[in-house]
Structure formats: structure tokens, C-alpha cells
Automatic annotation (TrEMBL):
GO biological process, one term: vitamin K biosynthetic process
Top-level class of the enzyme under EC nomenclature: transferase
Entry EC no(s): 2.5.1.74
UniProt feature coiled coil, ranges: none
Species of provenance: Corynebacterium urogenitale
The protein's name: 1,4-dihydroxy-2-naphthoate octaprenyltransferase
Pfam families noted in UniProt: UbiA
Statement: the UniProt record of this protein carries the keyword Membrane: yes
Pathway participation: Quinol/quinone metabolism; menaquinone biosynthesis; menaquinol from 1,4-dihydroxy-2-naphthoate: step 1/2
CC per GO annotation: plasma membrane
Catalytic activity: an all-trans-polyprenyl diphosphate + 1,4-dihydroxy-2-naphthoate + H(+) = a 2-demethylmenaquinol + CO2 + diphosphate
Function: Conversion of 1,4-dihydroxy-2-naphthoate (DHNA) to demethylmenaquinone (DMK).
UniProt record similarity statement: Belongs to the MenA family. Type 1 subfamily.
């Protein structure tokens, strides 16, 4: 398969995508996975000595550019492999035949470049060795579905999300502002990582039939439908439990439980064994709940 063709549109002329379709291809419903860890890390920084808003903004630019980049990279890589020929999720630019694959790849690279520039600036403001961590994040974003042996096709997608959009993003945000990592920062990192992983897991739960047929062996495909649902519920439970733990010595952390109703609503289609498009709202509900949780945790840090 070449960049100029997709399995579903071999030889077809590309009609091009509107701004709205490019925006949909960037998958805004996943952007909570970028902002939540920065807000949580800034909350940990405030509790540990004081937040630095300039560094927080730079961290947010890095996180947002990375997640847009990984979304376009996934669109490109899955599209040229044919994984997106039959899917129930949001629009894919490459798989739909709207946009020439190389243009989607360039959009991914541009996003990674923005993340790199902001990340280098942030690193020189705190610790230059963080540039290496940033480079690892960009490589991880590309090789999730890119390259000859993408780790996203080996059941490691949720692990990567937990590491990069949980541990690295939260603790990195805290470290760049305070030069240290606290136990509450670690707890927030694990909570955000679990929630971000649950978003990815719900997406892969929805796509189990088509991914299995296309040879994309995600964690959901490995575990099977029932075990994937149990794991999803466990990840949500971990976030709730850690919220309670973080209230020890700092009662405002309990305000984070305000997000539980959203996660409860998201759990309904998972528990009733909904399939396909019926699982799409789960991603948005968990993301909004995670964003609400992180905002409340940041506000609570100032109380």
C-alpha cells in the first residue's frame, strides 16, 4: 500500500476536506487527555510550593500538539493499512478517501514540530534533559500505529497512554514548576493515566470486530469483550479510589468526586454490553469527567 492510495479508494481522486472535517480528524473529544494531565500536574505543583502559569501554558501546548499529532498519525497509518475501511467511529481523513495520505502525515509532523518547539522551550526553563523525554514522547506518538511493527497493534496502546498522558504528562508538568515530584503528583498521574487509558480502551472495545478482522491486535482484542469491560470499570474505579486517598490531609480533593456521576453514566453502555456506535458516547463522557475532575482538583489546590 502506498501513500497515494487507500484500500477503500484505490485510484480514487481525493475531494479534499473542509476545515470542519480536518478538525474532526484531530478528534477534539480526545483533547481532554491533553489538558487534564496539565491541570492535574499544576494542582500538584500548587500544593507542593506554587504553580507557574507560564510553564503550565507551555506544557498545555506540548500536550495538545502531541495529541493532535498522534490522532493525525493514527489516521494516516491506519488508513494506508486499511484498518479504517469499515469502522463505526468518527470520520477518518485517510480511510474515507477525503485527503491524500501524505497530507495527513504532514499534518501529524507539523503538530509534532509544534510540540517539540514548545517542549524545548519548557525544558530550558527547567531541566534540559527533559528534551530527551519529549523526544521519546514524539517517537511513541508516531510508532503507536506507524512503522513496520506498531506497538498499538500489539496490545500496548493503553500502556503507552498510561505512561505518556498519565505519568509523564502529570509528573512532567509538576516537575517543570517545582523541580520535584510529590506523592500527590504520583497519585494524580496514576488517576489521569487510568482515565486516559479507559478512553483508549473504550475506543478499542467498540472496534474489536473490525480490528480483529484487519489484524490490529489491540489490548481489547487480546482480552476479549467481557474482560475488556471489566478492565474498563477497574480503571474508573482506580481514579475514584485515588481521589479519596488524596483527600488525606487535604479535604478539597474530595471535590473531585463531582465527576463520578459522569463516569457512572459512561459506565451504563459498557455494563449493558452495548456494541459499535452505542459506545461512542463513553469516550466523551469519560473525557469530560476527567477534565472536570482535573479542574476541580486545581481549584481545590488553592483552597
Amino acid at each position: 500500500m502506498t501513500e497515494g492510495t487507500t484500500p477503500a479508494h484505490n485510484g480514487a481522486r481525493y475531494s479534499g476536506a473542509s476545515f470542519g472535517e480536518w478538525l474532526e480528524g484531530a478528534r477534539p473529544h480526545t483533547w481532554a487527555n491533553a489538558f487534564a494531565p496539565v491541570l492535574a500536574g499544576t494542582a500538584a505543583a500548587q500544593l507542593g510550593g506554587g504553580a507557574d502559569w507560564l510553564r503550565a501554558i507551555l506544557a498545555a501546548i506540548v500536550a495538545l500538539a502531541l495529541i493532535i499529532g498522534v490522532n493525525y498519525a493514527n489516521d494516516y497509518s491506519d488508513g494506508i493499512r486499511g484498518t479504517d475501511d469499515d469502522r463505526s467511529g468518527p470520520l477518518r481523513l485517510t480511510g474515507s478517501g477525503l485527503v491524500e495520505p501524505k497530507k495527513v502525515k504532514y499534518a501529524a509532523f507539523l503538530s509534532f514540530a509544534v510540540a517539540g518547539v514548545a517542549g524545548v522551550g519548557l525544558s530550558f526553563m527547567s531541566a534540559p534533559w527533559l528534551i530527551l523525554i519529549g523526544a521519546a514522547c514524539i517517537l511513541g506518538a508516531w510508532f503507536y500505529t506507524g512503522g513496520k511493527n506498531p506497538y498499538g497493534y500489539r496490545g500496548l496502546g493503553e500502556v503507552a497512554v498510561f505512561i505518556f498522558f498519565g505519568l509523564v504528562a502529570v509528573l512532567g508538568t509538576e516537575f517543570t514548576q517545582t523541580d520535584t515530584a510529590s506523592w500527590r503528583g504520583v497519585a494524580m498521574a496514576v488517576a489521569v493515566g487510568a482515565l486516559s487509558s479507559s478512553v483508549n480502551l473504550a475506543n478499542n472495545l467498540r472496534d474489536i470486530p473490525t480490528d480483529r478482522e484487519a489484524g490490529k491486535i489491540t489490548l481489547a482484542v487480546r482480552l476479549g469483550d467481557a474482560n475488556t469491560r471489566y478492565l474498563w470499570l477497574s480503571l474508573i474505579g482506580i481514579a475514584v479510589l485515588l481521589t479519596v486517598v488524596m483527600s488525606v490531609g487535604h479535604w478539597p480533593a474530595l471535590l473531585g468526586l463531582i465527576a463520578v456521576p459522569l463516569w457512572g453514566i459512561a459506565a451504563q453502555p459498557v455494563m449493558r454490553k452495548a456494541m459499535g456506535r452505542e459506545l461512542i458516547p463513553v469516550l466523551g463522557l469519560v473525557g469530560r469527567g476527567m477534565l472536570l475532575w482535573s479542574v476541580v482538583m486545581l481549584l481545590g489546590a488553592f483552597l
